[in-house]
Amino acid sequence: MKKYAVIVAGGEGNRAGGSVPKQFQMLGDVPMLWWSVRAFHEEDSSTEIILVLHPGFFDEWDILYSELPEKDRSIKVRLSCGGRSRAESVRNGLMSVPDAGDALVAVHDAARPLVTREIIARGWNAAIENGAAVPAEPMTDSIRLVSESGNVAVPRKDYVKVQTPQVFSASLIKNAYSRADITSMTDDASVAEAAGHRIALFDGSPYNMKVTDPLDIRIAELLLNTVS
């Protein structure tokens, strides 16, 4: 079964600080986004990797790629243009995936550089069984529901935190993105759900954090040796 990884790095990443977008900032010996590329390649070297970048950063990417360690330059990626939103970027990336009925697509945010081969493998297997599957972690904080009338405590056992990679049958997710109004969609499971598909959950990891601000980058650096 052919597998595709659409790694979304199309934003400008301003909240993380620095002179370049967060996905291009160095994390260890390589740019942040490359950790996700490495993980998918190491899990299965036959996986075709599609990297979605803001079109204004293609030249920046050429420079960064040329400076990768020699062993990494053997990993081939296909570039796709990012859109005005994450959902548009994913839709653009999916255009590079053929309409093969038995293919799988994993959509992953480059801002989650600590994804592991084990999480990726669980995602492929869950998508084979269910068609659409996302990694999730239980809530550990107390949470409250906020509305115009105030706020109220809600039981955290009824909620989970959703991560990426979110994994799908290629035909399912391509069709869902072609049909859905993606304006307000913040993840791919929402797009698939809006098209009428049920979403299965598989185990994520507390290490599979999303890097948003400078503190997150420091935490990711500390965790790298633990998960790599």
Could you explain how this protein is built, in words?
It is built from 7 helices and 12 strands. With 228 residues, the chain is an alpha/beta fold. Strands 1, 4, 5, 6, 7, 10, 11 and 12 form an 8-stranded mixed beta sheet that branches. A two-stranded antiparallel sheet has the order 2-3.
What CATH first level would be assigned?
A: Alpha Beta
Instruction: Look at the structure and name the CATH superfamily.
Output: Spore Coat Polysaccharide Biosynthesis Protein SpsA, Chain A
| Basic shape | globular
String of helices and strands: EEEHEHEHEHEEEEEHHEH
Tell me what portion of residues adopts beta-strand conformation: 15-25%
Q: Which structural class is indicated by helix and strand composition? A: alpha/beta
Ranges with pLDDT <50 over ≥5 residues? Answer: none
How many extended strands? 12
Number of helices: 7
What's the main sheet like? Answer: 8 strands, mixed
Share in helix: 25-40%
CATH topology name: Spore Coat Polysaccharide Biosynthesis Protein SpsA, Chain A
Number of discrete domains:
1
Query: Gyration radius, to the nearest Å?
Result: 17 Å
